[in-house]
Amino acid sequence: MELNTGDTAFMLIATALVMLMTPGLALFYGGLVRSKNVLATTMQSFLCLGIVSILWVVYGYSLSFGPDVGNVIGNLDWAFLRNVSWETGTGRTIPDLLFCAFQLMFAIITPALITGAFAERMKFSAYLFFTSLWVTFVYFPVCHWVWGGGWLADMGALDFAGGTVIHINSGAAALVCALVIGKRKGWGKEAMHPHNLPMTVLGAGVLWFGWFGFNAGSALAAGPIAALALMTTQVATGAGALTWVLAEWKIQGRPTTLGAASGALAGLVAITPACGFVTPLWAIVIGGVAGVICYLGVILKGKLGYDDALDVVAVHGLGGLWGALATGIFASVGYQGLLYGNPKQLLVQAIGAGAAIAYSVVVTFIILKVIDVTVGLRVDSDKEQQGLDVAEHSEVGYSI
User: Lower CB count within 10 Å: N or C terminus of the chain?
Assistant: First the structure.
């Protein structure tokens, strides 16, 4: 297909915007932990930019988008980016290498999302192994199932920009991480409040900004579907922020800044799979419901007693699941969902979400157990008390 300079320019910008989301996530997560862990938590997001970039070039892109093997994985024909051209596009109006770069940014942020579940207690060595193994054995296959020509794609599962591939996938893994690694020392007995909420809100703003590249860029062209995805992203995010704040005001008696930031993130997550398939009015519904569901998920975490430190399961897991199912209900652009006469689409969406959850849970559990019996997952009690910034990295985020 002939390359289009407008589409190429648009996708260059979109790729840069999605890259910015990972440092934004580092700010969001970094502000939520205690000050003694701010650098360690920030680094766990930021370093994904290095780890996943290398793995993507060596074999990740080929496994995710390379020629299909058994409808479950790509082969290694494109390992080391062999035959991935920067001068031609395969069925697209942008260079193949630019599509590769855009998809790399998605692969980077997904394991970074999971780090919020084990914040403040995982060894740095364990984090390195976990990130490398998880993207290899979980992200790359699931990505291929949905976007690379695998079995979920053949079934007709819809995921415009990553509800199943990124958010459900990482949310399921986060739950397993929280359960396997265990609670933080003193959890439930001592206060573990965010140490820097302005930092978290700034991170949320950077994520919101970058998400326009995430969602609109998934159209892969500067056209009407990109415009639709941008608008649905904006209104769903605003609705999520508003409904989360209203829900906590009703239940807790106070609206909070953290609630506004978390609700915005919930709206972003939920609209991601649907953004190019639904109208703006339905996007408001999707985002608004997400704000309430994800807030209730945070409350449920306390009742169930697992320590998902930064609420990855509630926001990304539940938000992503709702978004995937909502796509099957409200889709009307290009595809039809339940409300437009196609109930089968909702069933397909549920199968895709269930498959991603089951696969991610099982493989994540195996990865964690292998790491635990080799290098060990968790820092010892004294190091955890001291804080990972000093204990693991010999540095501090703030000097007095």
Answer: C
For position 227, which CATH number holds? 1.10.3430.10
Chain segment 322-342, per-residue pLDDT in tens: 999 999 999 999 999 999 999
Rounded to whole angstroms, the Cα distance separating 233 from 231 reads: 5
The reply to whether 396 falls in a domain is no
Q: Give CA–CA dist 245/211, Å, rounded.
A: 21
With a CB cutoff of 8 Å and minimum separation 6, the contacts of 80 are 57, 58
pLDDT digits (tens, 9 = 90+) for 45-82: 999 999 999 999 999 999 999 999 999 999 999 999 99
Answer whether residue 156 is part of any domain: yes
Q: Whole-angstrom distance between the N-terminal and C-terminal Cα of the chain? A: 59
Determine the number of helices (DSSP H) and then strands (DSSP E) in the chain: 18, 2
Residue 28 has φ and ψ, to the nearest 5°, of: -60, -50
Q: What number is the average pLDDT over the span 219-238?
A: 98
How many structural domains does the chain have? Answer: 1
Residue 400 confidence (pLDDT): 67
Give the residue from 167, 283, 159 showing the smallest Cα distance to 230: 283
* Cβ 323 vs Cβ 282: under 8 Å: no
Secondary structure of residue 222 in the 3-state scheme: coil
Whole-model pTM: value is 0.97
Tell me, yes or no, whether 391 lies in a domain: no
Question: Could you give the CA distance from residue 335 to residue 348 in angstroms, rounded to a whole number?
Answer: 13
Q: What is the pLDDT of residue 181?
A: 98
Q: Show the beta-strand stretches assigned E in 32-156.
A: 68-69, 73-74
Residue 173 structural domain: 5-380
Q: Which residues contact 10 (CB under 8 A, 6 or more apart)?
A: 217, 221, 222, 226
Report the C-alpha gap between 181 and 20 in whole angstroms: 29
Q: Which of 314, 325, 344, 246 is nearest to 286 (CA)?
A: 325
Distance from CA of residue 243 to its chain's centroid?
Answer: 21
How long, in residues, is the chain?
400
pLDDT at 188: 82
